[in-house]
Amino acid sequence: MHTRRHFLAKLAATAAVPALFQRALAQDAPAPAKLAETDPTAAALGYKEDTTKVDAAKFPMHKPEQKCASCALLVPKEGAAYAPCNAFGGKLVAVGGWCAAYAPRPGAAPAK
């Protein structure tokens, strides 16, 4: 005979299964790849690992104080030289770099 207690126990066990799968998938996920300047998307957006090496003639809107570290698209990682960027599908970009998708993060001071 099935009781309410039996039903609730099965319901609780069933509800926990998706959380277990998510945890297992997160642990098996590979680390994001470092973005190469030769990547087609990176080349199209003029990505450079060093903001001082951006072609000023090709990207006149670039300013030397603009760096990935102060961009709204970067997922910041304290003290890291590279961090995931939403403009490049989560690939790692240099925090001292720049691309044409640069958008200043609200409230962020320009990186030096």
Quick recap of the structure?
The chain is mainly alpha-helical.
Describe the protein in words.
The chain has 112 residues and is mainly alpha-helical. The chain has a domain at 32-94: Irregular (High-Potential Iron-Sulfur Protein, Chain A). 27% of the residues lie in helices and 5% in strands. The chain has 2 helices and 2 strands. The chain has helices at residues 4-28, 40-44, and strands at 82-84, 92-94. Strands 1-2 form a two-stranded antiparallel ribbon. The N and C termini lie far apart (71 Å).
List keywords for this structure.
High-Potential Iron-Sulfur Protein, Chain A, 112 residues, two-stranded antiparallel ribbon, mainly alpha
Radius of gyration: 22 Å
Globular, elongated, flat, extended or rod-shaped: what is the shape? Answer: elongated
By CATH, the superfamily of the domain at 32-94 comes out as High potential iron-sulphur protein
The strand order across the widest sheet is 1-2
Q: Work out the helix count.
A: 2
Q: Give the termini separation.
A: 71 Å
Helix/strand-derived class?
mainly alpha
Number of strands: 2
Work out the helicity level.
25-40%
Task: Briefly note the CATH topology name of the domain at 32-94.
Answer: High-Potential Iron-Sulfur Protein, Chain A
Low-confidence stretches: none
